[in-house]
Amino acid sequence: MSGSPLPDSAAPAGADPSKPDPAKPEPPKPGKRVQSVLFVCNFNAVRSACAEALARHYFGKSVYVQSAGVRSGEPTDPFMVSALDEIGIDASRHRPRTLEELEEWEGLNFDLIVSLSPEAHHAALELTRTVAADVEYWPTPDPTVSQGSREQRLDAYRDVRDGLGFRIRQRLR
Predict the structure, then answer these.
(1) Does the N terminus or the C terminus of the chain have fewer Cβ atoms within 10 A?
(2) Which residue intervals make up region (Disordered) (predicted)?
């Protein structure tokens, strides 16, 4: 199942469907639908880029979506591009950008900021000193640290893709 997208009702691998998932986001508050979301990770090359591509794929223009990294320096990850390509999403044109670059280009006016790493969460909380946005932390493993064969490494990216896809569909619907 690693190579295929999760259906809307599926839970991440290993989850006990009879117990509530503590990592699952709470449903949106009535009357407060998210209209804009920013995904943030360390370099905007894997996790936040993947989340941006998935959210755009699932919600089109009904939700304004961007992503950024805390720091610059990493190119777009080819394993992330491959994992998304498997489910029909082309992320090959993604270019990593930092929070500073995004703020300079278009500002940081988002209803929701989703941080995907501890460093990104710290940066997101700092942003809320000057930006009125809800911040949610979705701890997401870094697939770049996976080892093994190409297929084993790609499985780590698929797991991140599928986990983010599940959470995004649940939170932004």
Answers:
(1) N
(2) 1-32
